[in-house]
Amino acid sequence: MADLKYDPVPHNQKDFLEKASKRRGFCEVYDALETEYALVHEMLSARTRAGLTQEAVADRMGTTKSAVSRLEGAGRHAPSMASLKKYAAAVGCTLKIEFIPQPMKR
């Protein structure tokens, strides 16, 4: 079984967004991927809570580290329900999907 030690790479999202938002077109593209980024954030948070590396998750899913990396890459890959369920189980979670009503526009 893969080593379960997790050593996260330091990243300051606030600083990153502040610098990146100054680039032309960044905000439009970032906003268009809001749902994908929210999904990736949930996935990474679950993996962090579980204390697992991508390799350990891959081992539990019966796939490769590169496949897990693609799952965790916002906007580059649209994961299937089957893959999301396997990922959730691998990090000790249950997958829950919600449709949240939007406020009526006038």
From TrEMBL:
<feature type="domain" description="HTH cro/C1-type">
    <location>
        <begin position="43"/>
        <end position="99"/>
    </location>
</feature>
<dbReference type="InterPro" id="IPR001387">
    <property type="entry name" value="Cro/C1-type_HTH"/>
</dbReference>
<dbReference type="Pfam" id="PF01381">
    <property type="entry name" value="HTH_3"/>
</dbReference>
<dbReference type="GO" id="GO:0003677">
    <property type="term" value="F:DNA binding"/>
</dbReference>
<protein>
    <submittedName>
        <fullName>Transcriptional regulator, XRE family</fullName>
    </submittedName>
</protein>
<dbReference type="InterPro" id="IPR010982">
    <property type="entry name" value="Lambda_DNA-bd_dom_sf"/>
</dbReference>
